[in-house]
Amino acid sequence: MKERLVAPLSSLGAHDLPVAGGKGANLGELIHAGFPVPEGFVITTDAYVAAASAAGVDPKDPAAARAKLTDTAMPAEIANAVRDAYRALSGHVAVRSSATAEDLPEASFAGQQDTILDVDGEDALLDAVRRCWASLWNERAVSYRATHAVDERALRLAVVVQRMVPATIAGVLFTADPITGRRRRAAIDAVRGLGEQLVSGAVNPDHYLVDTTTGAVLERRGDILDDARLREIAAIGGRIEAHYGKPQDIEWAIDDQKLWIVQSRDITTLYPIPATAPDPERDLRVYLSANVAQGVLQPFTPMGIQTFRLLGAAFASAVGKPLADPSAGTSVIADAGLRLWIDLTGVIRNSAAREIPVRVLSIMEARSSGIFARLLEDPRLAARRGSRLRSVVSILRAVEHAGVPPWILRALLRPEATRDRILRDVDAMVRSDVGPLTTPTERLDAFERLLTTTPPRMFPRLVAMVGAGLVSYNLASRLLRRVASDDELRTVLRGLPFNPTTEMDLELWAIARLVRDDPPSRAALADSAPADLSADFRRGALPEMLQRELETFLAKYGHRAIAEIDLGLPRWSEDPSHLLGAIANYQRLDAAALAPDAQFARGAREADATIASLLSRVHGPRRFLARRLLRRVRALAGAREAPKFHVVRIFAQGRAILAPVGGALADAGRIAAPDDIWFLTLPDARRAVAGEDMHARVAERRAEYRREERRRHIPRVLLSDGTDAEAAFASPATDGAIRGTPASPGSARGIAHVMLSPAGARLEPGEVLVAPATDPGWTPLFLTASALVMEMGGMMSHGAVVAREYGIPAVVGVPEATTRIATGEHIVVDGSAGTVALEGR
Questions:
Q1: N or C: which terminus of the chain carries fewer CB neighbours within 10 A?
Q2: Catalytic residue among 243, 753, 798, 826
Q3: Does residue 591 surpass a pLDDT of 80?
Q4: pLDDT tens-digit series, residues 497-510
Q5: Is 243 a catalytic residue?
Q6: Are strands 259-266 and 248-254 parallel, antiparallel or unpaired?
Q7: Residues 106, 708: Cα–Cα separation, whole Å
């Protein structure tokens, strides 16, 4: 054997992961950096490969692989090398698995393979090494790798052998608080004796929190460690974090006198902080998740983020603050974890505006509203001194510069005529010429011009139209406060006309009704998978009626998609699989009482009846004013979805402009495939057109995108010190009740169906849809749902609006709904009280 079978830890470093695995490479790196690590050696991955080959290990059969690695004698050359290294070390040792897929940025794999402590003697060591090799194929490790999409063919295992620390105290140090995410706040758990007791959960550890900047002990639950030792542990953790440049999960042990570091790995669960964030000790920033607010929890493509940077620059120009570099965007828009964040620090520190997030989010994203109410109490975010009047004037000037007030006034005076005028104007803007598209450079210029000029022209009008409807609703609510319940006021919003998303869904339902009576279409929907139907559609090979109706639908709504605010994702016009699946699902909705168009019409009748009842309770000028306000609510509030609808039309246009650039760059060999264009930014694309190779950049971003797709928790509000504000303010429920925000009145009983994505999903008629959040891509499912439960949102969030219009009860802003409720459970949703009851619990 010519391979390196054994290597001293002191000879290894971070670059040796393929040879020493994650644990071995990290320990070698720590030794080189001067940290106190017990001496030892690594049995390399080459040794594992040789032993696995000799034993006849088949990666496709994990159980057999375990047995062969455990029972087969170690090849002599490997055994001799291990014995020689052990003799030089001597004494009791710790034997730890160190996989090449371990302690990586995207997943720690902590505890998936075996560790054997207090091993004494050569034969015992060889047995422990074989056990570590075999543990690569235990059930939990195989399952974990499958979850994280690790390629098993390239998987290797090294084994770390270290001098055993006779620990009197041992524990774990997180250099950032793993619960709240706050950086520079060390969380320390400690037990007497070996740390294995802590890892295995055999004992309850002492727990401490230490401010690593000041050394102050912030929390103490236990007496094993005194303040001096806590500061020592926190300080060495701070130095290790500084060395790696990332928060660390560190295992440590103390013998009679000395503190030893026995492992350090990245904390993979922390949400990243925006790269543009300043030092939080100097300037704490507050970021609102645009993804959570929009119901899109998945990451954005880089070009999707670029789109919002251009939009930010466009709106900055619209309020009189143009930017020198539109592609860089405004500082108000940040990105982290390939998601969008809105920096609201300036608003919170503005004495005239700091209450705005609380009020706006109370109707859009109720849980975030409560977080901001708490943040206003944080002395680090106190309002800055300055003239309140000056701030108000500045805000009003920006709004006036954008041209919003005149359109609000027009909409209030002549609601129907103004609405029709605005929608005609916006349609003309979207259809306007964007300039030459002959060359890739012209296309990039046209894309930038489209995003920086069209939205600022149309958005103020659309916002004014919606704003006039909301103003009318709020004024009517105040006017009727003493005679109308909250439930009745929400009923007024049922069956609202002029909502493009509702109109879209009802047109999709109309297609389903038509093709139900067409045998070829009905058979195709029943017998073929949505993906196959989509392929047939693109070839023009669907049954004639289904092909024609879907073409007509996509001509109007083909710009929409699941997670449609990411320009980098395909539109329905490119792949209508989701729509075809929804149409097929509607074929099973036979009960007339459940027909969505009938439900919508019933909701409109209920709204009209409620308005008549409310008006009968007031008289004179109050009735006159209430009637006109409620008329404006019905005429304008349904346009709540219009701004997003038309902005997404712009996104689809921008995508169509950019797609051929991807093809040209792929043909030129500067990216691997046309779709790689979505993993570039606009400046990247310009450099690629100029001749720069972008293969490495695209590969890096695609890898980050895949990692972020697996992230399960996205903070609603993130502070620049890493704090997940909701986690920091959380208090445990005392009665186990599931409560949220009332969003659509009524009560429904049904079987829960928990969905994390609408892609390919089928909802049985009458089931209760339980989702983390929704955007228009989800709404075709609403037509068969008996009720909606959502983790995100407020009374005026997208899901709530559409649920009301379909007349189905909805409760939104329900913490951890998708984990607290299981598919198949019988639940009762009370959209008036904002509660979800689990029957049988």
A1: C
A2: 798
A3: no
A4: 999 999 999 999 99
A5: no
A6: antiparallel
A7: 8
